[in-house]
Write a structure and sequence with these properties.
The protein has two domains: 102 residues, Sandwich (Immunoglobulin-like); 31 residues, no CATH class. It starts with a helix and ends in a 7-residue tail after the last helix. Helix content is 18%, strand content 33%. It is built from three helices and eight strands. The strands form two sheets. A five-stranded mixed beta sheet has the order 3-2-5-6-8, with no helix packed on it. A three-stranded mixed beta sheet has the order 4-1-7, with no helix packed on it. With 161 residues, the protein is α/β, with parallel strands linked by helices.
Amino acid sequence: MVVRRALLLFSLLLVSLAAFAQSNYSVLSGTLLDPQGRPLAGAAVQITALSTRAERRVNSNGQGIFQVPALLPGEYQLTVQASGFATLTRNLQLEVGQQLSLDLTLSVAGAKDVVEVGAQAPALHTTDAAVGEVVEPVSIRELPLNGRMLIDLVLTVPGAH
């Protein structure tokens, strides 16, 4: 009986530790609003990977919130459509483990208007306190790393210890 309880506690501890593990996948979430700032329920959100053309589709909930989990890092095109509103298209760059949250306002549709927003998302993480850095492949290839030790590459990132 005591062994069974100890085994149960140990397995619960392992499960809880796995919940804190970091993931390589990105998460895209956001809130969809109309021009008056009211939430848009049931809007169609489509995210397309530019490298593979793979598509993921979700709808916003009653509060205008949407979430697309488990996205591989890369370039994406976000398209938002809602009845009576102009289609919104935005290009995004998702990094490893990034949790990007967007607040998007859709404009009222005219005669088949298409709105394209080309601005990049801010680098500020408002959803978590994690700090990360992506080392570009050019840096990996061109840096003279002594013995190709990983720690030498990590130390090229400002603030790494």
